[in-house]
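Bump. Still looking for Carboxypeptidase structure tokens.
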Amino acid sequence: MSFVAATTSIDDGASAKITTLPGQPKDASVAQYSGYVRINEKKKMFYWLVEAASDADSKPLLLWLNGGPGCSSIGYGAFQEIGPFQVLPNGELAKRQISWDTAMDNFAFLNKWLEVFPKFKYRDFYIAGESYAGHFIPQLAQVIVNQNKGIARPVINLKGLLLGNPTLDRSTGDPGRWEFYWVHGLISDATYENMRKFCSVDRASEGCKNAWQEAYNNEIGVVNIYNMYARPCEKNTTQDLMYRDGNEFCLEADTVKYLKSKEVQESFHVDPSYIPFNYTLCSEPGVNLRYSRSDGEISVLPILKELIEARLRIWIYSGTTDVAVPLPMTRRNIAALKLKVQEKWYPWNHRDQLGGWIEIYEGLTFVAVMGAGHEVPMYLPSQAHTMFQSFLSNAPMSKPPPKQTSST
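Sorry for the wait, here they are.
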């Protein structure tokens, strides 16, 4: 599989080719390209393309988008989750052992990017991402589906979506958030009851605001909202350094330091007028990011229904330790779609161990990944890879063997 990570122009694909990245292992031969695609006179989008290691010309194309809004698909998605490399504490790159080789702007980017890399035209195409990309991805897919109507062989041959811990409908899903906080002991009985009492009626009411303030200011404490059981990053012992793999705080610091390097930015063909660029994983709202906060309140569930009717393959997955978009929140959003269950909730296996649970609906598959946080591929890369392979092949997740019963 080839994947593209895009964030918010190159004349041809050859000039976009990356010979090697600083710190890249000598034995890591990767066909990779990066640069800009100009959307209009004021906007251009940066991309990083990594081709599949084998049979690249026959593999599908995947676009990966991170959320935020305003967070980097390069710094998060590519370097911390599914890309070919991970940044080490010394600034070198290590080959990842398990690698996953606004709507109109994104659509314009795809069309112009395909002019730079025409060999990907008509290729089976999938869009994947997490968090607030639960808004971006369905909106982009809706534009593609509408533009493809009446076209027998579309250039952007969209086949499916893979959404991780997605923000879909806050109003419908919020009761699941309060439930998760309460069940896991993050908030008191009184605060939970106030959330149910006031927020169910009006999320903008004073009673609802007071309940949330009580929760965040006095009750929840210092918890990593992306994985409630994650340890802090410590760099002083061998054991702590070994633990860096899959630790969000460690990986973030290493990745930011690497991407701030002038040499790295030049290797990625960053616009020279921006170098040296003070790279951050997420843009700061109101400073270097402008977006509509009202967009976050819009439900994308009606769009998902449209896409289900368009017969796209749609999988939603959720890490069970995520606090930001917890599993019960996603379950409530899926329940609101009122889809018929084709195969009821069952456990799935990963290497003969419990990997999580799955439920299959007409037009949608929901996967829970046991023990994973918000960024599932970062916390549990092997389980995420198993799920991703099942998604691409449209094959069911492996069930555990039947329990043995014995008579006495």
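The longest strand covers residues 341-350.

Edit: fixed formatting.
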